[in-house]
Amino acid sequence: MAAAVAPGLIRTLLQIPLVEARDVDDEGRLLVGYDVSGSMQLHEVDHDGTWRQLTALDGPARGRYLPGQRAVVVEHDAGGNERTQLSLLDLDETGAATDGEANDEGTDELPLRPLVHDPRWIHRLAGVRPGGVLYLTNRRNGVDFDLVHRDVATGEERVLYDGGGYVMEAQASPDGRWVALTRPNAPANSYQLVLVDTTDGQCRALTGWKDDTFLRTPSWLPDSSGLLVSSNAGREMTAVVHYDLTSDTWRDVVVDDAHDLVGWASPDGEHVLVAVNDDGEVGLAIHRLSDGRLVRTLPLPAGGCAALHRHPDPVWSPSGRFAAFTFSSPLEPPYAVRYDQASTTLTAARAPDTPAPPTCLVAPTSQRVPTPDGERIPTFLYRPADGGDGSVVVVIHGGPESQSVRQWSPIVAGLVAQGHAVVVPNVRGSTGYGKRWYALDDGRRRLDAVADLAALHEWLPAVGLDPGRAALYGGSYGGYMVLAGLAFQPERWVAGVDIVGIASLVTFLENTSSYRRSHREREYGSLAHDRDFLHEASPLTRVDAIRAALFVIHGANDPRVPLSEAEQIVAALRARGVPCEFRVYDDEGHGLAKRANQLDAYPAVLAFLAEKLAPPVRREAEDESSLGSQVGSG
């Protein structure tokens, strides 16, 4: 019965609108992304709860309020190519901004005012200031990212940093003199914090080039005397630490030896919003900045995720009166939340007129799966409410420097409704479980992570699941893991779903966008020094071993994992007679961002898995029925 219900249910789940918080102003107005139109567009939610659509572009839009003005800086690309452009939207006008495409929402059209436009290059919004924007661009040489400040009124630009490399984050001090930025350093999944003096362009490294340190979310104190950063320097888990410019010293602000923490300093200079990652459940708390003391834990539903990973980072309003963030859980789709520091109240901004999620949704249990080398893989197990039929789909996250968390996933929910158990592991190399764990797949240890799939397969009978009816599903690096599982462990898996995955680590590194190559070589190994191992660890090298049916999805404009990765694995499998379904979407990049494409692809994926994971008796009956139908029609 579950399998019969699932095709309709997955369409229902995919059509539930999603809301994500992008910004909040000092009046309490929320800038949100809302995808009711079929892709994530900007809307404004007033403090009285009224909604107003701001953009109606062909593809997803992101943005920030411009402080001191009723305006939004909009970031958008074309067809998922990630060559983002910046535009300005005047909120005193009426209607919704379009890019000239048909607007099905019935709103008046309001063209965006180009702010930084050159479709050959990336212009990534790094920050907003009164009258100006900070953005990162690779237009100097296509590889290195420079940090540029642009005056919105005059168009005057000033390059604040051109020291080379792939800059991850950049934040200017309130007085405008300093910029703190993070960039990858020598060890894999490690970052260097650099302080740039904008008066003379001099750079000072605040952490070492060879330090094995993960850093993120630099945020300044209001007097520009120092900044907060989330760092695991000298420890296993990330903590919130303070750097003082005058004394050139560091001090701990909030530390939890058992959990990763990420913090965002309030513009009031007195508080810090801290995300606590507890085995993929992410809560939020307010701490005092001076001594780290807990002020209050925000009362959010248990078992969900309030920040990090696929959700945008929380953001404070310019005065620090309000904060905005996104919350979701396996039982509830994403919605925006406004926190009022004065009244300590939370206000949810859910999609208007959205029906309640289906009652068949289930929450996962937390598992630890043993491996032959003595490790234990953090894993979530989703079981159908009726126990299911023993079939199982292992869903592997991308990254690899990422984490599966307790977030909304219509795919997982649809698979469970179809009667499959869903196993969601954080294999070695995942973040969220300490520095040692995320380093265990670096470079030539790549196949140790693939071996974790075999350990998961061995564990299935221990939880009552059928190892003979197990499939793999994953996107990006997760797609690589799917292909590697099928190639290196062909006897274990009956099917795979590969979404924007890597077939050959060699050709991936050769053909990925030039600005990403060195960044990815830090994780996987370099073409110059590790080519033999990269070839050995590539699924395409062992394509002769693959015998499981495969479903491949890719965006034609993917700048990260080129379409050629999908094309070559599909061609190789089809030449060997291995069943392989292949869908390419011409208006997508690294994944499917548009609902129309999701509705085309994912119900077909679930039907594919229902067929491949059906109990043997049902498969035989379906085969006989098909044969009889063919004979009768002849």
Automatic annotation (TrEMBL):
Residues 415-613 form the Peptidase S9 prolyl oligopeptidase catalytic domain. This is Dipeptidyl aminopeptidase/acylaminoacyl peptidase. Keywords: Aminopeptidase, Hydrolase, Protease. It comes from the Bacteria. Residues 349-374 are annotated as: Disordered. One of its GO terms (molecular function) is serine-type endopeptidase activity. GO terms for biological process: proteolysis.
